[in-house]
Specification:
With 346 residues, the chain is α+β, with helices and mostly antiparallel strands. Helices cover 42% and strands 16% of the residues.
């Protein structure tokens, strides 16, 4: 266990930073205060913008992190604290900066470095000892940061995917009150229901509200596997209710509601042309048909004659091997092209 309160504080700040944004500001700022350094940096090469986030003077950071490794950071022995003169590349390049640097190896060949710098008087032995205190914790903290960063990246992708598909979720607690929801859900439902955190979902139609309460009761009390509730007349969205999986306990959720509206926007005709291998003029027709237009309506919307539109459709079927309009609509609606348009988050 650490012998001094400042060592305990440093370790706690290190793990707090690892579980946060990953900029390591907390532990570095505390090191600066304790050692009177000009700057402190935990350099994790995997981190995007490691050079910009290092907090070191730009000219020194550029030298330390140069691809050819002139100072020898990649040749440092793990767990040993180095002064500038001790660096494997020699300390002449880093003058007039005083340095204390510690390297630790992660899994495989990856390394991280904890660096203190200042000008003038050299660091004390106690300053190097503070770095040594953090040594056994650095691999664990960086591994935690890596796991957290990956989990955040996956969560962002999943949220973006749901938004692009027009799909969002609502979480209901055991009393049927809203305890959480996906970003943009309130905007998605604003025409048919009022959403207030900690309150019940309030459809604008009282009869819909009664059906919603009954559906929630069937899922929570009677054990129904799923229930569907139309929140209004078509094209108003519907809500599908299901028991919350155990992983949702952290949200306080007993029931998860799923809602979907058409994605905002449509794929560009140029992408449709690339997918089908047809000219853009024919792709525009294919896209109009996939969005529910008849051949006559599509021709009028595109400013061509119905005969020209019919000729385009024959060319599309000949080029693609599709067997008529239903096949064409199915091919486009089942494609990832509709994920291109990024809807605005509400």
């Amino acid at each position: 266990m650490p012998a001094h309160p400042e060592e305990t504080d440093l370790i706690m700040r290190l793990y707090a930073d690892a579980d946060g944004a990953g900029d390591w500001n907390g532990v570095c700022e505390r090191l600066v205060a304790l050692t009177r350094a000009a700057a402190a940096a935990l350099i994790v090469p995997e981190a995007r913008g490691a050079l910009d986030q290092s907090a070191l003077p730009v000219e020194l950071a550029t030298m330390l992190l140069a691809p050819d490794d002139p100072c020898g950071l990649r040749r440092m022995r793990p767990e040993r604290v180095y002064a500038a003169a001790d660096l494997p590349g020699g300390g002449t390049q880093t003058a007039p900066w005083q340095i204390r640097a510690l390297a630790m190896r992660l899994s495989g060949r990856d390394m991280v470095w904890l660096v203190l710098v200042r000008q003038g008087a050299d660091f004390r032995a106690a300053d190097g000892a503070l770095l040594s205190t953090l040594a056994p914790h650095l691999p664990q903290a960086v591994a935690l940061w890596q796991r957290t960063a990956r989990a955040r990246a996956r969560a962002v992708l999943q949220a973006d995917l749901g938004a692009r598909l027009g799909a969002r979720w609502l979480a209901f607690d055991a009393d049927g009150r809203l305890c959480d929801h996906a970003p943009g859900t309130a905007k998605q439902l604003h025409r048919v229901a009022r959403m207030r955190p900690g309150q019940r979902l309030e459809p604008t139609d009282a009869e819909v509200g009664a059906r919603l309460d009954a559906a929630l009761r069937r899922v929570m009390v009677e054990g129904a596997l799923s229930e569907a509730v139309a929140l209004g007349r078509p094209p108003a969205p519907a809500l599908v209710l299901q028991p919350a999986p155990p992983e949702m306990a952290a949200l306080g959720a007993s029931v998860i509601g799923w809602v979907r509206t058409p994605p905002a926007g449509a794929p560009r005709p140029e992408l449709v042309a690339q997918l089908l291998g047809v000219p853009v003029s024919e792709a525009r027709l294919a896209l109009a048909l996939a969005q529910g237009a008849t051949l006559r309506e599509a021709a009028a919307a595109l400013g061509v004659t119905e005969e020209t539109a019919r000729s385009y459709s024959r060319q599309i079927f000949a080029r693609t091997g599709l067997r008529g309009q239903p096949d064409l609509v199915r091919a486009l609606l089942n494609s990832p092209l509709w994920l291109e348009a990024r809807p605005k988050q509400g």
